[in-house]
Amino acid sequence: CPWGGCSISHLKQLITGHLQESVPDPELIDLIYCGRKLRDDQTLDFYGIQSGSTVHVLRKSWPEPDQKPEPVDKVAAVREFRVLHTALHSSPAYRDAVFKMLGNKESLDQIIVATPGLSSDPVALGVLQDKDLFSVFADPSMLDT
């Protein structure tokens, strides 16, 4: 398409063609220019976008599937929390490794993606991102048994 007459929809297809690994579908991104979300049916000219303009690409978040939480085996949970609590408080190397992992954005993102419902639980996210809270919540005496 001619540069200025290029539709936003076509531009999104070009972008996703270059970002196939991380964004395989144009429907998974929004384009933002000067603080405005660009509509697919408009053109670059419509928004005044010229060569050298900066257009931001935002990846849309995936909706989490509706899932019923699995029942929790409280005995097993208490056992696991006791192991975690003991390891955190008796092994500085283990504690440092856990906190280093939780302090790494990529690692934390992987944990969030791998745990259904975690991304929509602000309390759990806060606990994972705060060393002191994590240590307190890893204490098995905090569980209702």
Protein architecture, described:
The structure is a single chain. A hairpin with a 2-residue loop joins strand 1 (29-33) and strand 2 (36-37). It is built from 7 helices and 3 strands. The model has no long low-confidence stretch (mean pLDDT 80). 6% of the residues are buried. The protein has 145 residues and is mainly alpha-helical. The chain has a 3-stranded antiparallel beta sheet, covered by helices on one side. The chain has 2 domains: 8-59, Ubiquitin-like (UB roll), CATH 3.10.20; 74-142, no CATH class. The chain is 48% helix and 8% strand.
End-to-end C-alpha gap: 65 Å
Radius of gyration: 23 Å
Number of self-contained structural domains? 2
Strand/helix succession: HEEHEHHHHH
- Strands of the widest sheet, in order across it, are 2-1-3
Write down how many β-strands occur, each being a DSSP E stretch of 2 or more residues. Answer: 3
Categorize the overall geometry. Answer: elongated
What topology emerges from the helices and strands here?
Blueprint: H1 8-18, E1 29-33, E2 36-37, H2 44-47, E3 56-59, H3 74-90, H4 92-103, H5 105-114, H6 122-129, H7 131-137
Antiparallel strand pairs: 1-2, 1-3
Helix pairs in contact: 3-4, 6-7
Features:
145 residues, mainly alpha, Ubiquitin-like (UB roll), 3-stranded antiparallel sheet, 7 helices, 3 strands, Ubiquilin, Ubiquitin-like_dom, Ubiquitin-like 7
Task: Tell me briefly what this model is.
The chain has seven helices and three strands. 48% of the residues lie in helices and 8% in strands. Residues 7-60 form the Ubiquitin-like domain.
